[in-house]
Amino acid sequence: MLVAGLMSGTSVDGIDVALTQIEGEGFEQRVKLLAFETIPYPTDIRRQTLAASNAATHTATLSQLNAALGILFGEAVLETCRRHGVDVREVELVGSHGQTIYHQATPTRFGGRLIASTLQIGEPAYIAALTGAPTVADFRPADMALGGQGAPLVPYVDYLLYRSPHRGRAALNIGGIANLTAIPPGAKPEDVLAFDTGPGNMLIDQLVSQFSRGVQRYDSHGRMAASGTVRPELLQELLADQYLRRSPPKSCGREQYGAEVVAALLAENLPAADLVATVTAFTAASIADSIDRFVSPRMHLDELIVSGGGVKNPEIMRRLESQLPDAKVLASDDFGVHSDAKEAMAFAILAHETWHGRAASLPSATGAKGAAILGKIAHPPPKS
To answer: What is the separation of C-alpha 274 from the centre of its chain, rounded to a whole number of angstroms?
Structure first.
């Protein structure tokens, strides 16, 4: 089955499209990436999406943004097919993560009840209408309805791709947020531990954008961090964040590491390069601390397999290698999994399972009462 996986992360850099061939079922699936593209967001849509994520958007704008992103996601599939000579009519299914606007996994009292909630936008009906393929979207609520965090969802795919009878492995994706999946040797699905470790590129990206007045969106090759000096006192203050000490299952997002944290960092009045160096060190140190705190007591980590934008930041990778001397730090590309495409591929795989009526969540990762069939399906218009 040819499935298009779509991913737009918390950094709001663009729409990742992974055209993925999937055969088989469950953990015996065979997966092959056929084509991958990142289609940039139009500047005005990116600005409005970031504003919506920071709760600065009127509900009418949010409704329009939901439709606009659905159209952009559908057009991204069409454009990826065009660039790679694939007839879009061959695409049998689309899996769209959507754009996260709000994710609050820890229940709070609302309307007299304890409620956890999440919101990903990018209306799948528009994607289905444009591509002509059924579209699975809104993956997280089904898990949350069973008491789970709704995240991370990729551990199902990590287990499929990376489980080993003899090696203890952890899959680490460093996007806006960093998430980790720990897979002991010979693990069964229920043995998998997964959680968000804390910020990935999010704080780095926000600071670089602020200092460059929007000209740069990220620290290319970690050059700005490499030119600065890590401030130990500030680093220790960041590492004292209570989220890092919370036991899994747990997830986080812009709600924890968004505008308020950036404003506090800017109030330190430190040189730009020093701030970027310090938050880069924070990303690596929080990941290493999470592994020491939650993974090492359960298994020996032989290999850390890294994907996402953080792979391209030598400062993050160098620090991970130095702080995890007993583990071999590798890129997912070393396992034949495109490091940029991996998350989009994951939602192609999750959509494939949903389409076939199979549960594709790991309760050990999310804390749910049971496994859930994830997502909602939007069907294309009937063929005349």
So the answer is: 27
**CA 204 to CA 217: how far, in whole Å?**
9
Q: For residue 27, what are its two tokens? A: 């953990």
- Which residue from 277, 276, 342, 274 is spatially nearest to 306, judged by alpha carbons? 342
* DSSP for residue 228: S
Separation CA 5–CA 336 (nearest Å): 17
Sequence letter at residue 173: N
79-137 pLDDT tens trace: 999 999 999 999 999 999 999 998 888 888 988 899 999 999 999 999 999 999 999 99
2-150+341-378 classified as CATH 2.60.120.260: no
Sequence-separated (6 or more) residues with CB below 8 Å from residue 290:
180, 195, 197, 198, 244
The fold adopted by the segment(s) 164-335 is: Nucleotidyltransferase; domain 5 (3.30.420)
Residue whose entry in the numeric block shows the structure tokens 């009519």: 89
Count how many residues are written for the chain.
384
How far apart are the C-alpha atoms of 44 and 94, rounded to whole Å?
25
Rounded-to-integer distance, Cα 15 and Cα 6, Å: 7
> 119 - beta bridge partners?
102
CATH 3.30.420.40 residue spans of the chain? 2-150+341-378, 164-335
The three-state secondary structure class of 42 is coil
- Contact, 182 vs 170, CB < 8 A? yes
* pTM for this model (two decimals): 0.93
**Alpha helical stretches, state H, the chain:** 43-53, 59-83, 124-131, 141-144, 155-162, 202-211, 223-227, 232-239, 254-257, 259-266, 272-290, 314-323, 342-355, 363-366
